[in-house]
Amino acid sequence: MTNGVHGAGVGEASPGNQSDAVTHEPEVPGLAPKSGKKEVSARDLSDFKELLSPTELRQIDFVRRSFEPGRLDRAVRVAQRYIGSNWIEHCTKNIRHVNGLERLPKFDPDKSYLVVSNHRSFFDLYVITGYLVNRDMPHRLVFPVRSKFFYDKPLGLFVNGVMSFFAMYPPIFRERSRAALNLASLDETARLLRRGGTFVGLHPEGTRNQSDDPYALLPAQGGVGRVIQAARVDVLPVFINGLGNDLPKQITGNFTRKGTPIIMNFGAPVDFGGMLDQAPSPRLHRRISEHALEQIRSLGEEERELRANLS
């Protein structure tokens, strides 16, 4: 196990405003696949303009256009890599420990990757992906985020740009009346993965585990499975433990070197066997998510031993 000295990065939302429950696959009438079908028709956020406010439409359109090849996309990638990663690097490097890097594939800039992790802190994916970004991962970062504030307020677009350089995309909606939008956002995530050059972070648990036991994971939600089956990219599991939700305390603990050790334990790409070739359905998608979560749980048991050996 190594004590990393360069990692950090951009996460899925700003502290205290991160999306929870972004990986549920809602049941929406008329969207379930027919028996025997090998594909689920992808939904598009633009198909549901009547469910989106003018502000949401404008901001979704702007962030989506930032993924198109050109100056804006290049600028975002540079900012995520050299600005977003460095500030978290300096706030975590003294108490961060990393294991399992040898299990990861060599990152191909033309391919996409999906990292799945347990969910304890607002900052889980910030730290995981930032560590990799500072190790020559050139991909555009993407983390779904709840729509409230980040997409329904004009200031949200500014905060998204300043805090994550537009990594917080696509939006996830809380209202049951807009459940169809969440399927569209999941399918948008899969679309970005399929186009290549994208690194997406998701939590199979779907919401933060706030129990006292970091190793007792919450049930898997089917939304991640939907993305995994549709995208067909390498899925990289990781267990992370030691981060808190109090940003000033977290930063102080790093600089005093007295904070709780942060341990990231990476696993090899998940083997889903023949699951991804089966007819898609909400039940299958939950099984896929559960399988990914099992790999994370195993990494958690390794992390437990690693942590014990630190003391």
Write a compact overview of the structure shown.
This protein has 311 residues and is of the alpha/beta class. The chain has eight helices and seven strands, in the order H-H-E-E-H-E-H-E-H-E-H-E-H-E-H. Helix content is 39%, strand content 13%.
Notes on the structure:
- The structure is a single chain.
- The protein has 311 residues and is an alpha/beta fold.
- It has a single domain (45-310), classed as 3-Layer(aba) Sandwich (Glycerol-3-phosphate (1)-acyltransferase).
- 39% of the residues lie in helices and 13% in strands.
- The chain is built from eight helices and seven strands, in the order ααββαβαβαβαβαβα.
- It has helices spanning 54-65, 71-92, 124-133, 154-164, 179-194, 222-231, 247-256, 282-310; strands at 96-99, 113-117, 140-146, 168-172, 198-202, 234-241, 262-266.
- The chain has a seven-stranded mixed sheet with strand order 1-7-6-2-5-3-4, sandwiched between helices.
- Helix 5 (179-194) runs parallel beside helix 6.
- The longest helix has 29 residues, at 282-310.
- It is globular, with a radius of gyration of 18 Å.
- The two termini are 14 Å apart.
- The relative contact order is 0.21.
- Residues 2-22 and 27-39 have low confidence and may be disordered.
